[in-house]
Write a structure and sequence with these properties.
The structure is a single chain. With 233 residues, this protein is an all-alpha fold. It is built from nine helices and no strands. The protein has helices at residues 2-19, 28-33, 36-67, 74-83, 87-97, 100-110, 116-134, 138-169, 176-230. The longest helix is centred in the C-terminal third of the chain and has 55 residues, at 176-230. The chain is rod-shaped and about 95 Å long. One of its GO terms (cellular component) is plasma membrane.
């Protein structure tokens, strides 16, 4: 009697375990690998674009950070040298500072004695070159920010094409398991493209803000230098 009851309980437990669906977990690696060859190629391209964007960001960030460091007494020292007629000492001070603003001042010092308009033009031309150096390769990050989501959407289209192709070949019998490759490709590539695009967009805007800060410093010191030349002797 007891043996029969125990067997019945065990059988009921086994039936209950069969009825409870097994919880399925899926890692990022599984999502990528289950997406098929098309999805894997799209993801690989996005990973490369992300690596390029991060490399350019950190390289430019360090360069812009170094360019933004200025000595608060720099212009006062330039003023003293020019007032005392020590132009060579002023040039040496600019060379030692080695910043975009100091290079503009050095260009202006080398033109002292010429008309003020020529000095202003020389400083403006030098400023354009310095801005170009600061913004080097930053446009690549902007391109990646715009292209990455579109590449992700391309993967979405490819995934949907794969899913429709599977439906067409199924002969009217649709199996969700059979469609999983196309659906995984569609979803994972879209998410990956958006993630890369968002990271690149944030990185680009941060570099633009930091670059504008350096440009403002260059403009301020250039104006101070021109005002210095306009002062009465």
């Amino acid at each position: 009697m007891l043996l029969t009851i125990q067997q019945g309980v065990e059988t009921a437990q086994e039936n209950l375990e069969e009825l409870i669906p097994e919880e399925k977990t899926l890692s990022i690696y599984d999502l990528i690998m289950d997406g098929g060859l098309g999805g894997q190629i799209i993801i690989a391209i996005l990973v490369v674009l992300l690596a390029i964007a991060l490399y350019i960001y950190f390289e430019r960030f360090l360069a812009i950070k170094a360019a933004s460091k200025t000595d608060k007494n720099f212009m006062n020292q330039i003023r003293d040298h020019i007032s005392n007629g020590k132009l060579e000492a002023a040039k040496i001070l600019c060379a030692q500072a080695s910043s975009p603003a100091s290079r503009l001042i050095e260009k202006g010092v080398s033109r002292i004695g010429k008309p003020l308009e020529d000095i202003n033009t020389a400083i403006e031309n030098a400023g354009k070159l310095e801005i170009y150096k600061l913004e080097k390769n930053v446009s690549v990050i902007a391109t990646i920010a715009g292209a990455a989501p579109m590449i992700g959407f391309l993967g979405t289209v490819i995934g949907m094409i794969v899913a429709i192709h599977e439906i067409a070949n199924a002969g009217g019998q649709i199996d969700i398991k059979m469609l999983s490759d196309g659906l995984y490709t569609a979803m994972t590539t879209t998410v990956a493209g958006l993630i890369v695009g968002i990271i690149a967009y944030i990185a680009y805007n941060h570099l633009v803000v930091r670059t504008n800060k350096v440009i403002y410093q260059m403009e301020a010191q250039s104006v101070d230098f021109l005002d210095l030349l306009n002062e009465p002797a």
